[in-house]
Amino acid sequence: MYLSTTLLSLISASTTLASNLPPPQQLFSNPSTPLTPTYRIPTVHESAIQARRILHLESIGTLSTIFPSTHSTENRPGDVSGTPIGLMDYYGDCEPSSGNPTILAISIATSFKNVDAGSNITLSLRWHPPNAGKRPYSAAALPRFSLVGYLEYLSPEDVLKHAVPACFVGYHPDAAAWLPGNRIHESKWVRLVVQDVYWIGGFGDRAYIGWIPVTEWQSVTKAEIDDCKLPGEKSGWHWTSWFGL
């Protein structure tokens, strides 16, 4: 069996890439000084812009909560009390001026029952480049982050002001079946009020890793979000760019 020329070229390029990567201790933390004059770590504000663009373009994340010590309406093992659990859920960037994601809370869902029982909550997101399956890339080199905060119910005025149902269904057409007032499940509109942001922009020698102050998160403008281009959004990128090179 013969390997194609493209595959052989990819293997050769991957070997070259691996030999040129910085030592492991510099991959997941910010170096005290740049490794070379050509490397520049994005600023905290630039990282906040990237995070806000991801929030705007993505629509599915992981809600993490903690099981309460007591429960009365769910048949589950007692030994999971205090254990964290992360579950996929929908969200929409329906209040872009604040940076607080909108969530359709299904009362019967585990994440929201845990919050009602007193659990903290985070929403974790990562960037999925367009056409990612058509070119090689390193997921570890791409941005991801977690939003730490609390849930707050939206008032009828907020729902109307931000056209929340239309916005959310625009992100998730199937969610039209379980909007508030449906006959399947009790549901309510909530926002995740962002209090802290933990950001991993990629490998630490070329991306910021650390906390983004909520003031930076909230100060990002629509123009900055629209002008930002994430890895894989630009046309004509060489595959090494997907590794942050």
UniProtKB/TrEMBL annotation:
Pfam families: CREG_beta-barrel
UniProt signal peptide: 1-18
Keywords assigned: Signal
Residues of the CREG-like beta-barrel domain: 42-217
InterPro entries from the UniProt entry: CREG_beta-barrel, Split_barrel_FMN-bd
Keyword Signal: yes
Protein name: CREG-like beta-barrel domain-containing protein
Top-level taxonomy: Eukaryota, Fungi, Dikarya, Ascomycota, Pezizomycotina
